[in-house]
Sequence to fold (116 residues):
Amino acid sequence: MPRSVNHVASRAKRKKILKLTRGYYGSRRNVWTVAKNTWEKGLTYAYRDRKQKKRNFRALWIQRINAAARLEDLSYSKLMGLIHKAGIEINRKVLADLALNNPEAFKAIVDKVKNA
Fold:
C-alpha cells in the first residue's frame, strides 16, 4: 500500500503562516523555516509586551500624578497616602487624566484630602 500524505493540508498550513509573515525583511517572509520561527517568536513577544504595556502605562500615570502633586506642594506618595486615608476611591488612570486635562478637578481632590 502506498504511503498517503495529505499535501493539501500541509501546503495550506504553510501558506497560512507565510501569509502572516508578509512585510517581514528578507528571508523571514518567504523561507518556510525562518518565517515559521520568526512568527512564533513574534507571538512570544506579543504575549510579553501585553504585560509590559500595563506596567508602562502605570508608570506614566504615576509620573503625571507626581508632577501635578508637586505643583500642589505634595509628593506622589504623600498624596496617595492621603487619598487612601480620606477613603476616596479613584484609580491612578483617572487621577492622571484629571491632572493632565482638568487641573481644577485635580486641585479640588488635593484640597479635599489636605483638609480631611
In short: The chain has a mean pLDDT of 95. The radius of gyration is 26 Å. The chain has five helices and no strands. The helical segments are 7-20, 32-71, 76-86, 92-101, 103-115.
